[in-house]
Sequence to fold (340 residues):
Amino acid sequence: MPSLPTQVRALVALLPLLAAPALAWGPHGHQTVGGIADQLIAGTPTAKKVRAILGSNLQMASVWADCARSVESKAGQWSYTNPGSFKDCAVYENPASQAALVAFVKRNATRCGFMASYTQCRHKAWHFTDIPIQLKAYGADLPGAAPNDLVQAVAASITVLQGGKPPAAFNIASRREALRLLVHFVGDLHQPLHVGSIYLTEDGKPMLPKDEHEAKAHDNAGGNGIVLAKSKLHGLWDDVPGKITTNLLAGAGATLARDVPPATGPIGTWPMAWATDTLQAAPLAFQGLKIGAKVNLGHGDQWPASTEEPAYRRARENLQQAQMVKAGARLAQILTTLWP
Fold:
């Protein structure tokens, strides 16, 4: 039997890694966004309102929506699985908090199993939208968008915090739940691969899908199917180096955030405007990438990729920092607008 090509052998070795679900920004990135916003509103009536609703600060609340991914259904029974697996979720692993997570997931899902797709488990779809990077603005009717995507999730959370009723795709039970979701989703809205997606042909060439059917045929799950340096491309962008988060949380983040231009117009237009801003930054995540032809080893389509280092890593870290600073500034602006 002939030996497998080198790229295929490499991908075989990566299968356990590729099966693991990715979390947006990772906990440190989300906590950094929440922490920047905490510093910007410190000592204000806004901060008192946030504390009254959450019972904590934004930094702590920022991981709640990802902790909900640990809720699963087996034989019709819902439960919080594998406590202790994610140290940043430990604060929510007491009985009352686990019950709140289970109630949220159960209320918003038809069936949630391991690696459930967005059509099967609605709350997982709230973390992303997959607009082609060739486009210049987010639109709810574009390929990759959906009525329950990330942009709509941010808008729905704001609606609940304003005392309104969210669209049918979202069942958000309280202001506490809405605020926990908002702090997380504003972070997601600024992760380039949670907004912009590159759609690929079988030989690894970018293409612009004309409709949702064509988008699904050429999808790579927001970069999860692109393998770079033994890692998913999406995972690399979620993983923010500690040196960046430490510096931003030490005060540099709030200082930089004060220079972010505030959003204008009605608050309801901000999620779409910020998604457009992130979409325009998303092509930078693919600059310098050489993407090879698709391979399928029975575990989904994967495209091997390569790039020049350390240039790509430095560019990635610079954009990660800039996006987290924007997210912190914009989260604070939403909250000070809701509760001056």
Notes: The first strand starts at residue 71 and ends at 74. The chain has one domain: 6-338. Residues 92 and 98 are 6 Å apart (CA to CA). The longest helix spans residues 311-338.
